[in-house]
Amino acid sequence: ETGVTQSPTHLIKTRGQQVTLRCSSQSGHNTVSWYQQALGQGPQFIFQYYREEENGRGNFPPRFSGLQFPNYSSELNVNALELDDSALYLCASSPRQDLYGYTFGSGTRLTVV
Amino acid sequence: KNEVEQSPQNLTAQEGEFITINCSYSVGISALHWLQQHPGGGIVSLFMLSSGKKKHGRLIATINIQEKHSSLHITASHPRDSAVYICAVGKGGSEKLVFGKGTKLTVNP
Fold first, then answer.
1. CB neighbours (10 Å) of residue B46?
2. Do A104 and B44 touch (CB under 8 A)?
3. In chain A, residues 63-102 whose CB comes closer than 8 Å to chain B
4. Given a cut of 80, is residue A99 above it in pLDDT?
């Protein structure tokens, strides 16, 4: 399997709800990073997972959490959704931690109403 | 001031024109990426470079480490080149990319 696959592609949630976004890494990639992209802005780093361990975190509150599974797929969980969480969430995988060979998914568009 | 600045923010060109998009950064980096994002949101990696120049088809990317500046050039632009072009840098020893805000390119037929 090639490429990074994200699901769902679009999602509408109500403020206060919880959401789980999924990412399947490209074959052979053991590192996955999650980014949030607000409208008209560049992506902002949320966190990275390397071999199932969190390997770095951006300036996001604890209600943003993640998991990486033994097959290197990953989830992003957001609790207590706020209106400002509305954004495109991008997943990127790479074969090693130094960001070489980054491959991006098409993103999940989350709208919080 | 953002660590990565791109210019221009918006660019409109006629088909066939030569396009240049600029990126300046203020931190030490291990590599610089040029990415293309279409309206659907998916990002495609165009180049990763840490020195010199790379060419792929009609796209050319250059970087000047001393001046902390990179350019993306598109020769013989085409309407299908219309997209947002994003510059992102990987800082040495860091796990993350830092992105510019992007340059929205529109190529008219």
1. 17
2. yes
3. 88, 90, 92, 97-102
4. no
The predicted model gives B96-102 an average pLDDT of: 90
Type of residue at A9: T
What's the rounded Cα separation, in Å, for the pair A66 and B51? 34
Q: CA-to-CA distance for A50 and A54, rounded, in angstroms?
A: 6
Under an 8 A CB cutoff, do B101 and A102 touch? no
Interface of A with B in 36-65 (CB under 8 A): 37, 40-45, 48, 50, 55-56, 58
The angle at the Cα of A55, spanning A52 to A59, to the nearest 5 degrees, equals 125
User: A42: distance to nearest CA of chain B, Å?
Assistant: 4
Residue A66 tokens, joined: 């993640």
The pair of three-digit structure tokens given for residue B43, joined into one six-digit string: 């990002």
Strand A44-50 versus strand A103-104 pairing type: unpaired
Of A44, A100, A107, which has the smallest distance from its Cβ to B41's Cβ? A107
Per cent of chain B over pLDDT 90 is 72
Q: Which residue has the tokens 């959401």?
A: A19
Q: How far is A11 from chain B (nearest CA, A)?
A: 14
Rounded to an integer, what is the distance from CA B31 to the centroid of its chain?
13
Both tokens assigned to A34: 């999650």
Q: Do B43 and A90 touch (CB under 8 A)?
A: yes
Instruction: Please name which of A41, A6, A33 lies closest in space to residue A20, comparing C-alpha atoms.
Output: A6
Which region, left, alpha or beta, applies to residue B102 given φ > 0 means left and ψ of -120 to 50 means alpha? left
